[in-house]
Amino acid sequence: MALTREQYLYMAKLAEQAERYEEMVKFMDKLVVTSAEGPELTVEERNLLSVAYKNVIGSLRAAWRIVSSIEQKEESHKNDDDVPLVKDYRSKVESELSEICAGILKNLNDFLIPSASSSDSKVFYLKMKGDYHRYSAEFKVGDERKQAAEDTMVAYKAAQDIAVADLSPTHPIRLGLALNFSVFYFEILNASEKACNMAKQAFEEAISELDTLGEESYKDSTLIMQLLRDNLTLWTSDMQVKFLETSCKSKFFLMNIHLILDNIYLIQNCNEIPKPHSQ
């Protein structure tokens, strides 16, 4: 039974409350199609769309990392009977990842990006497009990974051009873009210096205009600024370790360097080295 746009919105909220995110995605997909004949998505609607897909893709990405880790362990232990089973299961997770990425990218390309009228909505959707191409690049290999990385770059760059021109440095969408774009440089392109420079610039530009930040976006903006700073701390520490590892061949010396850095993390109330933050 076809519902109205308002009813799809209500059902998506209901599914969110019930933590049934796959169904939330389906309701928001139908809302997006329904909106093609009316006004573009409201801020509330686009945020719900993001939440729905983010929860589904988040659990799949976590599952993929776990299964991939188990696969590597089984291969290192030469458990030849189990490795094919794990590989098949990883492929299943990857198929689900591909399906969810394809779903949101179709919505973005067919409906949301063409109908976006304001700068913040254009940046929001282009950033989202970059995010899901980046998620694809995480598990793709060979030419498919290369293409996913190129598509990520194109989307993020288009979003960045609009954000720099039209959004203030403290705008949470612009900050979120800088956060995720820098993670792309670090994790997918292995360009750690570029990642650090981008995160540092976004953080410093926001700091310089912090007094202009309105109450409505203060919490979101300062949270993302904290994530940018956390990533910078993590990445610069990583770079120092890699430099020392390549500059010194002494295993004893390296062991002591790692102990020193571990103590630094503990002092900073960080008991484990986390993955870089992204939205």
From TrEMBL:
One protein family per Pfam: 14-3-3
Swiss-Prot/TrEMBL site (Interaction with phosphoserine on interacting protein) positions: R61, R134
PROSITE patterns noted in UniProt: 1433_1, 1433_2
Domain of life: Eukaryota
Occurrences of domain 14-3-3 (ranges): 5-249
Family to which the UniProt record says this protein belongs: Belongs to the 14-3-3 family.
Protein name (Swiss-Prot/TrEMBL): 14-3-3 1
